[in-house]
Structures are given as C-alpha cells and as structure tokens.
Amino acid sequence: MKRLTALLAAALLAGCANLTPLAPVAEGESFSGRLALHVEALGTAPTRAFSAAFDLRGGARAGALGLSTPLGSMLAQARWQPSEVVLATPQGTRRYYDLDALTREVLGESVPIEAWFDWLHGRPWPGAPSSSTGAASFAQLGWTVELGRLGEGAVSAQRSEPLPVVTVRIQLDRP
Fold first, then answer.
1. Separation CA 101–CA 109 (nearest Å)
2. Is the pTM above the cut of 0.90?
3. Domain span including residue 168
4. Closest by alpha carbon to 35, among 20, 50, 46?
C-alpha cells in the first residue's frame, strides 16, 4: 500500500503529466463509479486505505481499469490481455504477467479484478467455484461478496483469510 500511496501522491504532484483517458475496449462491459479499498491493521502494519473514481472496461480476459482523482485527473491505467498487464502512471509504464501480480505489487494484496465484471452484475465469476452464503451474498476466491445494495449500485467484498482482512467497496455511477 506504501507503493500505491507513493504512486498516487507522485501522480497528484505531477499535475501536468496527466494520462489520457482510457480508449474504448473492443468488446465487453463498461462500469464507472467510485471504489474504496481498506486493509485492516495487522501486527505492526497500520491500517491502509485508498479510494478513487474508476472506469472499468472489457472483461476478465482483456480489459482496462482507470483510476482518477475526484477532480478527474487520471492517476493510473491498467490494461490487460492474456499473459500481459501494463500499468501506466505519470511516472512511467510497468509490465506484469497477470492482474494478480499487479495487485500484489501495487496494492500489497491480491484483489480479483477479473471477477469484478460478474460481481457487479450480482453473480459469481464463472472462472472459479463459488458458494451461496445467504440470500444476497456468495463466497468466491476467498472473498464474501455482499449484494444487498446491488439495486442501488453498491457491491462490497471482503477477504478474511489470509490475513489481513481486505474490504473493497464499489459504488457504481447511475445514468
């Protein structure tokens, strides 16, 4: 999370080094809104939190995720396709083998971005087993996905194991 905080702080200070908005992805979904990531304190590691506006396009196999400030300045863009993920920030471009490698390095935790496309529709991702945990929730990839406020465009997911506890909250923009 320190890397992400430093990355975002540098992006904010780099005012004139803005990234261009995401170009349309050839096929797939398109979601936008706000997201918040919260990592609970563990041992001597402090609580970490991050929030940003986001633009998610494409699908699990190929897509793009843009993160921006509340004022609309692009902080970072990730684009992926099989066997390659590219992260662009005002400080430069880095490549990763997959989305898991990107989220582990940048966020310090594994976050299943490829599953978000289905989760935001209120269903488990077909790429991994899942189980129902209640009328408006399911478990998948070690995360419990809460859909009780899906009608309001809100989805939250929490990973309790392995520690630390990580929570992602997404609030979709409504047309």
1. 9
2. no
3. 2-172
4. 50
